[in-house]
Amino acid sequence: MAGPRAPDAPAAASWKRHIVRQLRQRDRAQKSVFLELVPAYNRLLEKAELLAHISEKIQLETNEAISTVPLGPWSQEPAPDSERVSPPATLRAKWQEEKEGLQLVCGEMAYQVVERSAALGALESQLEERRGRLAALEARVAQLREERDLWSEQVDARRARNAQRRAAYDDLRARAAGQEASLRRLEEEARDLLERLVQRKARAAAERNLRNERRERAKQARVSQELKKAAKRTVSISESPNPLGDEYREGAKTLSPAAEPELLESEAREKWKRSFRSASTTSLTLSRCVDVVKGLLDFKKRRGHSVGGVPEQKYQSIPVCVAARLPSRAQDVLDAHLSEVNAVRFGPNSSLLATGGADCLIHLWSVVGGRLKANQTLEGAGGSITSVDFDPSGTQILAATYNQAAQLWMVGEAQSKETLSGHTDKVTAAKFKLTRHQAVTGSRDRTVKEWDLDRAYCSRTINVFSYCNDVVCGDHVIISGHNDQKIRFWDSRGPRCTQVIPMQGRVTSLSLSHDQLHLLSCSRDDTLKVIDLRVSNIRQVFRADGFKCGSDWTKAVFSPDRRYALAGSGDGALYIWDVDTGKLESSLRGPHCTAINAVAWCCSGEHVVSVEQARKAVLWR
Length: 621
Fold this sequence. Notes:
- The protein folds into two domains: 2-66 and 88-178; 330-620, CATH 2.130.10.10.
- Helix content is 42%, strand content 26%.
- It is built from six helices and 28 strands.
- The strands form seven sheets. Strands 1-28-27-26 form a four-stranded antiparallel β-sheet, with no helix packed on it. Strands 2-3-4-5 form a four-stranded antiparallel β-sheet, with no helix packed on it. Strands 6-7-8-9 form a four-stranded antiparallel β-sheet, with no helix packed on it.
- The two termini are 82 Å apart.
- Residues 18-209 form the Autophagy-related protein domain.
């Protein structure tokens, strides 16, 4: 305990010096009062002694004078000179006056003594009070010392525990490093095994295809031989119920049951080449030829799918929009949420719409007859919804939330299927990649994460130097827009940023065209920019009088045919620009009375939906 108490020695000396300084101050203050009182009291004593001496002297003089005054005519001594000796009355009056003056001075001195005594009593009471306070402070200091000693012991104990935990943490880190190394080794082994398995399956498939090709060539040779044999025969055509005649029956007797279909096919093809003499013969030949062709096609189809392994899942084709319709009027206006609406997205089939808001809910809407009809409500998000997205098949919905996570729902199920947690701040963007099994999220914790949705596992974390406001995904690239006025490109197959494009304002949204050749960005400098990804250059800059980017999460989108760029303004108006010419096509005003947060253009190009900060969702056409 000597070691930890050593730093407290200067503190103990400081409070002792402080007490000595306070005592000296008190002594000086009280001494200044007594310095005036003591000399006055000394002077009073001196004057009292002087008065007593004078009184004694006067008394002696008076007695001498009385003794020298003649007592009457019978006195025989001669009378003294009247000029040399004062009469007793005069001396008595003089003595009386001096006595009264001395009494007055004594009274004043006594009054001063009483006042100084009262002041001295007050100072003594203050001194006692201060002594009491000093005793209390000393007790408090002793208590604090005890508490300090107790805290010092606790600190020492916690330091010891921290040292133990540090050692355990280092041990765990070493073990984790070893496990990570073993995991990487196992992953490499698994990758090698997978590659060998794929190669083995590929070899097996190639061998199977080779055998099938040999079998097919043998079958075709056999069919060719049968056709040649059938071509050398003569067939009589009659109107009998059996159009093939007796020759076929005779030939059929010599054939095995397995060779009958091949003979029928060969004879049917030969008869198809000769002139038609009977309707029954024609119909039989045509039907058999069609059957043969179908059999060949079916064989090729089976052969083409003979490779082993799980087939890759294919999504139904999404109709391509040839020409998008420019919206001109609002068809439906409704209060979509209980509070601010932050996100809106059309599904791949253009008939399903998803909206997300600050009420932590996602509402699904069906577009029926130019109206938005409520379809379903998805619950389970722990915070405000900032972004929604459909997977390419339209069966899953991914949402970014302020609860430091992204939520995954299946369309038709009200409760969340998966929670993608791992961010340490608000998740501002969540998008599917070109498959329903992978997704990308961006957050204000300055990271972009890739997710394997089958395992709800973060497969990759990209550290960035700024907040991420939006992300989009291409074939092999991830594009993120950030608060530091930059757009960054990340190769999904590599660890580093491949390109950075600077903007003039904070990037609020990104939209990728269907052909993945153009990128639309919206930023807080109240502009939209079209970037040609083939040359990584800004192709168009869109501005308009009155257009203002209302927030850091304002979303702008391309039309499905990439001819137009659409964005909502802070004054509640929709602005549409022509991408090729850069001109403002139209601006729509009407139902919105607050800033528009997000817009969506359906894949068919028929409808546009916009959402605002005042709970409204508007369907435009």
